[in-house]
Amino acid sequence: MRPTGGRTVDYFEMPDGSSVSPYTLTGALEAIPGLAQFQIVQTATNMVTIRAVVDQDRRPTIDNQIRDRLRCVLPNVEIEVSLVASIENATSGKFRVVLSQTGKS
Q1: Which pTM value belongs to this model?
Q2: N or C: which end of the chain has fewer CB within 10 A?
Q3: Tens digit of pLDDT for each residue in 34-86?
């Protein structure tokens, strides 16, 4: 995690040792129509899971849109999309859009 203006944010470490800003990740997904809420979780340097709350009429195609957009910023990373009804806040009560669980942020 790196501080930015008083906040702590998670950067994703890639398999090649480079890092990706959380703002790059969120920017890749924000404009997808029908994507009501999302959370990007890195579980390993080569694995990312997207939890997505999606408008019902967009469900058939949105997982491919999410993968396509993230492949541009996360090359050589497996991207799993999980469509969910809601996304819970962290135990602190805050919602974290980008979360690294690798211990290397």
Answers
A1: 0.86
A2: N
A3: 999 999 999 999 999 999 999 988 888 899 999 999 999 999 999 999 999 99
- Sequence letter at residue 12: F
Dihedral pair phi/psi, residue 77, rounded to 5°:
-125, 135
Q: d(Cα 11, Cα 81) in Å, to the nearest integer?
A: 19
Superfamily of domain 2-100: ANL, C-terminal domain (3.30.300.30)
Assigned token pair, 92: 């602190």
Instruction: Give the residue extent of every domain in the chain.
Output: 2-100
According to DSSP, the residues that pair with 2 across neighbouring strands are 9
DSSP type of residue 93: S
Residue pair 98/90 in contact by the 8 Å Cβ criterion: no
Amino acid in the structure at residue 9:
V
